[in-house]
Amino acid sequence: MPVMAAGPDESTLSLYGVSAADPAQELVDRSGADEADLAQIDRIMAAMGRLRTVERAIAEASQAYMGLKETDMRALHYLLIAENQGITVTAGDLARHLQITTASITKLLDRLERDGHVVRHRHPSDRRALTLTVTPQTRRSAMATVGRQHASRYGAAVRLTPEEREVVIRYLSETADDLAATLEEAATVHSTSSDSATHRRGRRS
Q1: 132 by DSSP, 3-state: which?
Q2: Reported pTM
Q3: Secondary structure in 3-state letters for 18-53
Q4: Mean pLDDT, 10 residues at a time, the chain of 205 residues
Q5: Are 105 and 94 in contact (CB under 8 A)?
Q6: What SS3 state is found at 103?
Q7: CATH class for the region spanning 70-149
Q8: Where are the domains of the chain?
């Protein structure tokens, strides 16, 4: 895995800088922000960008090490967390978490079971259902790779003061809310565009 720089360099700052991405202020009105504010915001954006880059590199390395696809890794992560909390997971539970169909979850579980990653068990109270557990060998591999890498986030958090953590929590939560809102807006625009296209085709026919 490539060694990442200690912090965002000038090229990264430029790549994620709001002025570079939106020079005409079509997306963000920056009239009320001074140069110092904008420079600091650019540093936040660059740090977030670098974090995403590192996370992608970690995910790709972990998938390659375990020989799994992204959805497989997500499935195993969910099952491991559930087991750690004593929660029983069925195929239906996993399908809902991954947001995939019954047919897709069957194929995924067939593949994971064939390769020795999961085991299906009879549900203790529902004869129609099967529960899922991760094999000990896969648990050890996951803990040595993804688990250890995720645990490394603890160090940065523990070095913050309680007040600083609250600021980080607020920023990440509000960023997630704002991003989720753009997804809803995009879905509305897509739906409106699709309806208009259907209406136009109807008129032509």
Answers
A1: strand
A2: 0.67
A3: HHHHCCCCCCCCCCCCCHHHHHHHHHHHHHHHHHHH
A4: 50 70 85 87 89 86 84 93 93 95 94 95 84 94 81 90 97 94 73 55 57
A5: yes
A6: helix
A7: mainly alpha
A8: 1-66, 70-149
